Amino acid sequence: MEINNKDYVYIEIMGYDEKILIKKSVLHVSQYFMSMMDIEKNNDDEENIKILPICSPDITPETFLYIKEFMEYYEIEPLMTIPKPLRKDLFFHLNEQNNNFYIQLLQKIPNESLYKVMMGSYFLYIIPLFELCSARYADLLRDIKNPEDIQTLFT
């Protein structure tokens, strides 16, 4: 597969030796990336794929892959607004809207990684993902009655 330099960028997560390739078209979901792309317009180098750095302790390559997956799907099928307060189970609400992808994504993210994905989406200013992760947290905590259960849920 030939990669068009104009259509892709590398995301470099500081502190890791890995660069993740992503389509430029999905970056509009993130205000962080949009501002980075504005800066990069001045350094237009057609020969090389641009590298956009991320420097956040909450974003690891594993965490970013969940974020990337969300961004790629969100470009095709945006997430509908999650009601506040969430009166029903989050999965019930997403199922009503036929958002099975978002259900599968949340089920794929381990509880101990959910916080990092949520904080990573906050850092990258991806509001729909931040709200989705927050609603998932609320959903997980809904029926918990004591602090010990909260601790075991996220460890």
Task: Please explain how this structure is put together.
It is built from seven helices and three strands; from the N terminus they run E-E-H-E-H-H-H-H-H-H. The protein is mainly α and 155 residues long. It has a single domain, classed as Potassium Channel Kv1.1, Chain A (2-Layer Sandwich). The chain has a three-stranded mixed beta sheet, with helices on one face. Helix 2 (61-76) packs across helix 5 (111-123) and helix 5 (111-123) packs antiparallel against helix 6 (127-141).
Q: Which tags fit this structure?
A:
155 residues, Potassium Channel Kv1.1, Chain A, 3-stranded mixed beta sheet, globular
Which range best describes the helical content: under 10%, 10-25%, 25-40%, 40-55%, 55-70% or over 70%? 40-55%
Average of the residue pLDDT scores: 87
Taking pLDDT < 50 over at least 5 consecutive residues as the criterion, the unreliable ranges are none
Largest sheet: 3 strands, mixed
